[in-house]
Structures are given as structure tokens and as C-alpha cells.
Specification:
The chain is mostly helical and 67 residues long. The chain is built from two helices and two strands. The longest helix has 21 residues. The protein binds zinc ion (ZN).
């Protein structure tokens, strides 16, 4: 068995995935997030998703002001 264990917390989630649950790591902070049936495209945890959305809005407002 060749599973590289990089973090202890990951082991728990690897086990849950093995059991059939769907988990993935947030692309921003690396926090584990559970994937629900209707959220296949999820990339970030709730906190990062909010932050990214906020930053995008800020960026958008800044671009709008330039014109
Ligand atoms: Zn995150």
C-alpha cells in the first residue's frame, strides 16, 4: 500500500472518501470541504468563497471607476 501521508487530518478524510463520501481540499486555504451532490464545481470553503467573491467585487468596482 503506497499512500503518502502528508498530514494527519488528511488520513481521516481519505478514509471518508474511501467510504464513499466526497471531500476535497479548498484550493485557497487547504481546508477540507464536503462535496454535496449539487455542488460539484465547488473549489473553495465557505470562508474563501466569500473572500474571493468580495475581492472580485472590489476589483470590478475599481475597473468600473477607471472608465
Ligand atoms: Zn478555504
Amino acid at each position: 500500500m503506497e499512500i503518502e501521508i502528508t498530514d494527519f487530518e488528511g488520513v481521516i478524510y481519505q478514509y471518508l472518501i474511501w467510504k464513499g463520501e466526497r471531500w476535497k481540499k479548498c484550493e485557497e486555504c487547504g481546508k477540507w470541504i464536503k462535496i454535496h451532490k449539487n455542488s460539484n464545481k465547488i473549489k473553495y470553503c465557505l470562508k474563501c468563497a466569500k473572500e474571493i467573491q468580495f475581492n472580485q467585487k472590489k476589483e470590478w468596482d475599481r475597473n468600473k471607476r477607471k472608465r
